[in-house]
Design a protein that fits this description.
The chain is built from no helices and 11 strands. The chain starts with a strand and ends with a strand. The strands form 2 sheets. Strands 2, 4, 5, 6, 9, 10 and 11 form a 7-stranded mixed β-sheet that branches. A 4-stranded antiparallel β-sheet has the order 1-3-8-7, with no helix packed on it.
Length: 128
């Protein structure tokens, strides 16, 4: 059984930093891609960042580009989201996602529907 467990959320002041972690468990689980999404009440869960294991390509939402960095430790099945220069509008529940499929189109990795496994979420609150 595959489980994704996020950690690292919390309360931070604007322009501060946080580092989220996501640990994947499952003996035979080898994700092709892992990603971060976020959600605020009343809005759709939105794509933040993804990293594709087989080619190392990363992609980011425009709203976080240049401030957030996704990285992965394949040996430990850990994915990280380094968040710098945080803004109040970054306040959300952040979810880790993973999938074992490989997509021909790079844009497919931005779609929520293409991730089978999800964590429970970790809250990030940025105060002004």
């Amino acid at each position: 059984q595959v489980q994704l467990i996020e950690s690292g959320g919390g309360l931070v002041q604007a322009v501060g930093s946080l580092r989220l972690s996501c640990a994947a468990s499952g003996r035979t689980f080898t994700p092709e891609a892992m990603a971060w999404f976020r959600e605020v009440p009343g809005k759709e869960r939105e794509f933040i960042a993804t990293i594709v294991n087989w080619n190392g390509i990363t992609a980011y939402a425009d709203s976080v580009k240049g401030r957030f960095t996704i990285s992965i430790d394949n040996a430990k099945k850990l994915v990280f989201l380094q968040m710098n220069n945080l803004r109040p509008e970054d306040t959300a529940t952040y979810y880790c996602a993973a999938d074992q499929r490989r997509f021909a189109e790079r844009s497919a990795y931005r779609l929520r529907i293409n991730y089978e496994y999800w964590g429970q979420g970790t809250q990030v609150t940025v105060s002004s």
